[in-house]
């Protein structure tokens, strides 16, 4: 009897599975993703932390007294030496749930504010990324596909946005809207709303997405399958939706972490300048600003959020690079002007 | 008025005889050297007729002179008016409407020109020609000022300021008596400059001066050098005393933290800006002998917009006044050594001040504790509970902290509050303009001169409110016809009986406080940090530290 095995057809994996397998093998990318997810999870636990710690991270608690090893310790300690000038906030206790990172100049728990601040920073950078991708992709698709006068007008508009230094534009828009909010027709966004930094950051980065997308669409526009669809009389919107958009999906996915990192930096900068997240709400940028006045006595108040921003941005960038290598190894897409 | 002037002259004589020998001896011993000052930035234009900043006014004291001056003396004595370029205090006639000054002879500007009657007349005209910031308020009572305000370029003040070259006199005619006119004439906006000084903002160009010093170099981005006026000969120790250092070098650009370190290391002698809050503890314990704490005639307050909901309701305003814990605010400012809780408008030790505090747990003369129950009850009664309130603070560490604290107070008594810190460069004008619909803000008022009207009349009279203007200093938009009439009466009374007028101002202070158009937060103190080599530190209540009266060797 023949012992010969029957040849079975080999199961081929789809491009997504291949990409994810490749990504899973990229240790640096996966480690970065883990770090980022840990940060997200920690930030999501902010309300729980505040509840367990029994602190209100947004209210001034200058007269608060906490217990450490059975002893009453004031959150704001008055200098008792010499002239008795000034108050110094409590330093880190290194006890979770009890002013782990100490207090800020308002007597608030820095750890609780760090977690809430991270939540704001992540929400704003995430929402701004979605906003940028939607507007940027739409602009890139329309300009690249329809060409002609549509392309000229859209490209010049993007050029105008591109011409401004990003931070200067974001700061200018923030200053204009910070006191009165945005009121255009049915759109009514109050000052102090988190939507303000989302929209401002979202707008300033539109050219960064729209330009590379337009380039890709321009080349896809002349590919055989698109020409065939045009000749068959398929409507333009359908070609864009069914034929072109799926072909740029990988690029868009690659954009997500990289854009998010950029947006997080921009949000922090705006909040540091008092034109992003408004007090008493927290973001990592506002906590750095609070800590600036305590650099000499309580440097951790400014250092910890700075570190959190650096780690998050680095994690997103490393993961973004890994994602690009996995999804689109030939891509030359880079964020930035060069 | 005459009685007051006589008393002032006698006191001046006494002080002068007491000071003279001591200063002469010290001058021999300590004269010379360079005193080095630091500030984050320059104080704006060098033009004394335009500059309206504490920093500028302090520096002008050893440089420029007016017909009269605030006495260069320590403490409350610094509020006394003494003759400066005028030989004596003026003769008052025409029912208090005419003031005649006899000009001193032999005084020269730093450029060598003789100072004379024509310079005084031209200087008064120039106040209007350059549209000085107080031309329409402090000097609007001079005859002819109305025409000058309407047509600044062709201002002559005809009939208002009359010079007599032969007699060497200047006659100042007012449209009505003004008890505060001498204070106004002693301010830098009324100093005497050479008649040929261009009638435009001189910006960074120094103007020749009559004082002991002159500005010899200025770069707004780097610094200012003030050196001895070669033509100066001391004529009055109490008006314009000779100084100790040969040069005052004022450098701009260093941060507050860096400035503290420079002073600690002996690389600088003093800094203008407030000390960083996180260095207070260290300096208060390690450098006690280099710190000087001095009272200020100033008021940190929170104007409540009396024309916008919810603070168009008196009970809502009073609720806020009851709820605020002034001790917390004092803590935020650096502690009890640097500030005192306050409920009323007029600062302590100020004319017309009588301790008064209705918005506290035990109403009386002093603030003791917030009364949250009363505050909540008033919010309920006002029917404003749940309304949205936005607080506009300055984007500085202290103002922002106070804003955050006030936001939590408003939230605790039933409002939906938020706080917006905006750049200090624009906040003060932004909160004044009604178009910006500011409900509540945080700001400060520092006296121009020691008179109750400088707080009450300026901050709360109907005429200080201007709809849609960036210069509407009645930020609260408060206008009470009865109180306004009383203020006018007090101003008139001051011409003949200042003591009775001050009594009346005390009543007005109480009435304004009761209506709570703004909430008093605290009275700050000035903290000066000097290097170890600075000696003879003297703090004048009108213009702060008298820089050139300290020595560095």
Automatic annotation (TrEMBL), chain B:
What Pfam families does its record include?
SBP_bac_5
Q: Which InterPro entries match?
A: Peptide/Ni-bd (IPR030678), SBP_5 (IPR039424), SBP_5_CS (IPR023765), SBP_5_dom (IPR000914)
Swiss-Prot/TrEMBL keywords = Signal, Transport
Q: Where is the protein localized?
A: Periplasm
Residues in domain Solute-binding protein family?
80-464
Looking up SUPFAM superfamilies in the UniProt record yields:
Periplasmic binding protein-like II
Highest taxon above the source species = Bacteria
> Residue span of the signal peptide, if any?
1-24
Give the family, as the similarity comment puts it: Belongs to the bacterial solute-binding protein 5 family.
Q: What protein name is recorded for this chain?
A: ABC transporter substrate-binding protein
